[in-house]
Design goal:
With 104 residues, the protein is mainly α. It has a single domain (12-92), classed as Cytochrome Bc1 Complex, Chain D, domain 2. 54% of the residues lie in helices and 4% in strands. The protein has helices spanning 2-10, 15-21, 23-29, 52-64, 70-77, 81-92, and strands spanning 35-36, 42-43. A two-stranded antiparallel ribbon has the order 1-2. A hairpin with a 5-residue loop joins strand 1 (35-36) and strand 2 (42-43).
């Protein structure tokens, strides 16, 4: 666990780079009051304003299988440490109501 934490601290996220990568998240996390219904009814959280370390830890937990949502596990599995840090930096600079869909 210590080596994972130490490595995570070495990767510095860029909110600007994260904005270019956020397309993978907005399909669910940018929709007000969105609920996924597979594999169970699940309220999809807004990510704006979340702590960057929490976002990275969550993505790593999905990637490792510690968290079980299959869609998030697949998405997190496609991300490297830099991607996770960039996405976390982007969302941590937002507020729950400010993350706009940059694709619009």
């Amino acid at each position: 666990m210590f080596s994972i934490t130490a490595h995570a601290q070495e990767v510095k996220g860029s909110a600007k780079a994260g904005e270019a990568k956020v397309w993978i998240c907005v399909g669910c996390h940018a929709i007000n009051d969105y609920r996924a219904d597979w594999p169970q009814v699940y309220r999809v959280p807004k990510l704006g304003g979340q702590n960057a370390d929490y976002i990275v830890a969550s993505l790593k937990a999905y990637k490792s299988g510690e968290r079980k949502h299959p869609t998030m596990r697949a998405i997190a599995g496609s991300l490297n440490d830099q991607d996770m840090a960039d996405l976390a930096a982007y969302y941590s600079t937002q507020t729950p109501t400010s993350p706009r869909n940059p694709l619009k």
